[in-house]
Amino acid sequence: MKHRPTIIMALIVMFLLPLHPAHAGxxxxxxxxxxxxxxxxxxxxxETIIKGLKxxxxxxxxxxxxxxxxxxxxxxNPEIKIPLPQSVRKVETILRSVxxxxxxxxxxxxxxxxxxxxAPQALSLFVDTIKQISFDDARKILNGRDNEATLYxxxxxxxxxxxxxxxxxxxxxAEVDTTRLFQDLSAKTASIPLAGTLTQDPDAYVTARxxxxxxxxLEKEELKIRQDPAARVTDLLKxxxxxxx
Length: 245
Fold this sequence. Notes:
Shape: elongated
Helix content: over 70%
Order of helices and strands: HHHHHHHHHHHH
Number of strands: 0
Oligomer: single chain
């Protein structure tokens, strides 16, 4: 063993020195030496860091997309539920007072249904983004803020995701009656004196809020992997994220 001379020298010094209060800390020093010798001081390799981070991101993105894509993934999650657009909220009380309460409720639910249908579109883009991560990117994400990976994804995918989501949201809203319900609400609002008109673009609104919810869930998954050892379900994840702590 290459450390044997060091250990032998430490033992010789320990037995030659008198046991005196001034040397009370020697055993602590020796203990530390033993721990240094028996532990693996080598830093993680680039390959290990990148592979571990990619594994964590794949796990996090798959989990986040699965959560929001399931039935009621948006609608029954108060953190990401898509609320009525501001233009509808302004006249909500009036609409309910004239018997359009159920239409308002159906419209809100249908927006969330459309988001749930669109969410799976994100996974393939996330996977492609993960494949392109460099060592420098991996280091920055691993040593960065608790939402560093989420910010990385947002910067590189949000514009593309908007383009992917919008047509899917548009088609989904037609299928679940969001478009018709919005048109009904618009017509009713226009018929009420001083109520104004509903000018919101439902496609753009639902797309933006759907992405906000997706990134929020991704952030929560990232935080879980960073802070909760139980969330690191493979040896590689345990090794990489333990090295940061």
